[in-house]
Design goal:
The protein is mainly α.
Length: 330
């Protein structure tokens, strides 16, 4: 029979692990996507990306061709974004080889395993909470991979934009400027890899619009769509591309600086969560070392065991709430 001290250690470990997951994974659901009303650049660019050069007559702009195809909708549509689908998030996380049902099965299996352990040693409240372990773990893995790829892309993207601006001002065309700007980055750079894929598509005969439109399609980065639209529209309707990309590079820099400042502002609140968890664990260890009957008696007494587990459940919910209060996405 498992002892009360072992139960205490198991629940404290569960609390610490759950706190770490909640701090790092963001929202438990599709936290990679938002739920506010926004301008859907992705929906606009999809038509631009799939538009063949052969669909355009000589001298006709891209916007004109879009209207000629019979679409009477506005060029920019405002719609309610309900978050990214699981299939899209898997693609952003470089897990597109796994079908959606595989993640659903993984969530169910993990939840059932956690519920089996909780059913043997815990009361009903922790048994119910154990059912959410599967979605928590699976979404943690997916979200961490999405964020890691976005951060890796974000490191070199402003430098790449400024390099392209400089190349355009020297007289190179768009494709040559993109290639020259990418060559200045390290071989492991995600930006350079995406440019290489784009140039490879051009070499195998894919149209320029589709090749440019495929740039960064598997990366969840806020400025990729703006970059793609600037390249495609400047080619179709004219305009000074170097000035547009220069403003975009400044915008990326400002967003990065704001994100760093916001992370520092909420860092104290996030750190307080860890301090609270460590204080609870240290207090339990001290009480067990000095008067073990207090700790063991709480878990061994049938009338007090439920209150002890309810307190652990409330602490986990408190960690979740504090994480939601300090969670932001820039």
């Amino acid at each position: 029979m498992i002892s009360g001290f072992q139960i205490t250690l198991i629940l404290l470990l569960l609390l610490l692990v759950a706190g770490a997951f909640l701090l790092w994974s963001g929202a438990i659901g599709a936290s990679a996507g938002g739920s506010s009303s926004s301008i859907s650049l992705r929906s606009i660019s999809q038509e631009y990306r799939n538009l063949d050069d052969s669909a355009l007559s000589d001298g006709e702009s891209l916007v004109g061709a879009k209207g000629r195809r019979g679409s009477q909708k506005p060029e920019i549509e405002v719609k309610q974004s309900r978050g990214l689908s699981l299939a899209t998030r898997l693609r952003y996380a470089e897990l597109g080889q796994y079908p959606v049902y595989f993640c659903s099965v993984a969530q169910v299996v993990i939840s059932l395993a956690a519920f089996s352990v909780a059913h043997m040693y815990c009361k009903e409240i922790l048994q119910v909470m154990s059912l959410f372990v599967g979605p928590l773990v699976v979404n943690f893995v997916i979200n961490r991979r999405i964020e890691a790829r976005a951060r890796k892309f974000d490191v070199d993207f402003p430098q790449f934009l400024l390099s392209v601006v400089g190349m355009l001002k020297t007289g190179l065309n768009t494709i040559q400027a993109l290639q020259a700007g990418a060559e200045g980055l390290e071989e492991t750079s995600l930006v350079r890899q995406e440019v290489g894929l784009m140039l490879e598509r051009l070499r195998v005969g894919v149209s320029e619009d589709r090749s440019i439109g495929s740039f960064g399609e598997d990366i969840n980065h806020p400025e990729i769509e703006l970059f793609v639209q600037a390249l495609i529209l400047s080619r179709r309707v004219g305009g000074t591309l170097s000035d547009t990309l220069d403003r975009l590079a400044r915008q990326v820099r400002k967003r990065q600086n704001f994100k760093m400042a916001a992370s520092g502002a909420v860092g104290m609140h996030r750190g307080s969560i860890w301090v609270i968890l460590l204080l609870i664990a240290g207090l339990q260890a001290y009480m067990f070392a000095s008067t073990p009957d207090i700790v063991l008696g709480t878990w061994q007494n049938p009338s007090l065991n439920g209150y002890a587990q309810a307190s652990v459940a409330l602490m986990i919910l408190g960690v979740l709430w504090m994480n939601k209060m300090t969670n932001f996405k820039v």
